[in-house]
Amino acid sequence: MDLRDAIYGRRAVRAYTTARVPEDLIKSLLDAAVQAPSAMNRQPWAFAVVQNPSLLDHLAARAKSYVLDTLPVEGPLGSFRPSLADPAYHLFHHAPTLIVVCARSDAANVAEDCALAAQNLMLAAHGVGLGTCWIGLARDWLGLPAVKAELGIPPDHTPIAPIIVGVPSAPTPAHGREPPHIVAWKQ
Fold first, then answer.
1. Would you say residue 178 lies in a domain?
2. What is the pLDDT of residue 174?
3. Among candidates 99, 139, 136, which has minimal Cα distance to 117?
4. Cys bridge to 168: 12, 40, 47, 131, which one at CB 3.0-4.6 A?
5. Could you read off the pLDDT of 27-62 as tens digits, one per residue?
6. What residues make up the domain containing 18?
7. CATH (domain of 9)
């Protein structure tokens, strides 16, 4: 796939088939992720992969409960409350794979570096016909010590980008984008 097509065509997918993403394909996505640039070439990322369907359902339910309990009532995130309160709502959208991009240190710029790796992963997934969605609401819950221990994430690692991956069950329509907001351009 052409790079421009990947950038303009990638969407946040929230509806997946139950098809398992093969291990070699996951490894290919992770390899694309680590090609991202990083400050001082620190490459501060690590990855936790979950593909067990019952574990994913269990994690999604617990994360949803935590988010509902801790989400502010007011403000932009408060708008998620009705969805989260719906018993049928699955925080991971029934995706067959969760990849958590983690920072291995607290050095400067590690969150940005991990976000770059996550974007590479999502573009690579789109390039092979997979869908992805960054589930930002799950990040704080994934960072709880007990949850990190359960998933095998070392205590000194920080979850940055929880990304679900799978085969989209239908095309995801594009949302319009505003033109770039240029605040300055000095020549």
1. no
2. 85
3. 99
4. 131
5. 999 999 999 999 999 999 999 999 999 999 999 999
6. 3-58+90-166
7. 3.40.109.10
Q: Find out whether 162 and 139 touch, Cβ atoms under 8 Å.
A: yes
Backbone angles phi, psi at 63, to 5 degrees: -65, -40
Residue partners of 180: CB distance under 8 A and separation at least 6:
none
* pLDDT band at 96; cut points 50, 70, 90: very high
Number of domains in the chain: 1
pLDDT grade for 168, boundaries at 50, 70 and 90: very high
User: Which amino acid type is present at position 127?
Assistant: G
Query: Which residues, in sequence order, are CB contacts of 77 under 8 Å at separation 6+?
Result: 71, 137
- 3 state DSSP class of 158: strand
pTM: 0.95
What's the Cα-to-Cα distance from 103 to each of 30, 42, 82, rounded to whole Å?
14, 11, 31
Joined tokens for residue 171: 């095309």
Residue with tokens 């936790």: 48
Return the number of other C-beta atoms located less than 10 Å from residue 102's C-beta. 25
- The answer to the question of residue 77 being in a domain is no
